[in-house]
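Lecture 7 notes: from sequence to structure.
We start with the chain below.
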Amino acid sequence: MNDIEGAVSDEMKRIGAASRIRPGASVAITVGSRGINNILTITRAVVAELKSLGAEPFIIPAMGSHGGATPEGQKEVLAHYGITEEAVGCPIKSSMEVEEVGRSPDGIISYVDQNALAADHIVVMNRIKPHTEFEGKIESGLFKMMCIGLGKQKGAHHYHRAGVNFGFEHALRTGGRTVLENCRVVFGIGIVENGKDETAIIKALLPEEMEKGEEELLVKAKEWMPKLPFMEAEVLIVDEMGKNISGSGMDTKVIGRIMAPYSEEPQEPKILRVVVLRPTPESEGNCTGLGLADFCHKRLVDQMEQHPTYINCMTAQSPEKARIPAYYDTDRKVLDAAFSTIGLVEKEKARVMRIKNTLHLEEVDVSEAFLPEVEGRHDLELIGEAGLEFDAEDNLKPFE
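Predicted structure tokens for the same chain:
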């Protein structure tokens, strides 16, 4: 998408935003903690359009328990993406205080940020994509933002608990409906990215359109979802993990592991050993998802901040993802340990894939064992040959 600002403007005009928002009205805009491409540009464009209508917009950090579940921490998460008051041209109101706004027939409580409730209108904005914990027609998107994002830590914890009993899709659907019925949501902005992590769709949805509209956008998101080129391997090397990459640090659908007692494991890919080497700086020590790996570098353990990692995992009812795998102080030792646990397969003949992270899969390093398959595939292109290169400290040189 070449014209982000133009797409935002066109969508807001299409749904008649000018007739729904009076001059002087305050408008809360939700912005989450995920690494959404062009999020600064999209947010700034929404703010500018609202200002052109005479409204008074402000940003709500809407991210459950992320940022250590503190107002300051959540504001810092936004700053990592360049979203500051100066950059977007409006205030950022960060608080962990919520109010109950209603209950579903089966008792699921909906909580909403107090600053958002005080506004004349709420604009729910989020990327729509597959969720890392379950499969459904609604997964991670606008309904999740209304429940988990606006619900802050208290709401996120309650919805995840409800998901264990009722299923996550049911919890999000019923919770989102409660928010729509009882809060002043004026419209939603759904963002869909293609397999190259590029903004592909920006769609404005009126409250009565949001449930069906999100279902339709999720279909497109799943079609474009990045995935590994091969569905079986002895070892997968993931250079980096982090909250800006996936809610679980590494996308569970990409690596083929969910590791939650209340969710079925994916049928594929089948990866015997997962190795992860470093955290992203944007995660600020939140190493949620480290437990998905079998082996890791000591730097991940050293940089893990216990409080944000634990509160995130406990809120999500996933203590498994805070577990620390076997770790070593060099990448070479990490890989030697991984290769020693792949059965009778010799290291030189092992099927090995290396990726930068689970979000960027345009280029993947693979071992020679995959070469016959690569040559037989029309959807793959062999762009070069190189082995695993280590530096003087026995750590892998950066993924190129």
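Points to note: DSSP finds 14 helices and 13 strands in the chain. The first helix runs from residue 4 to 14.
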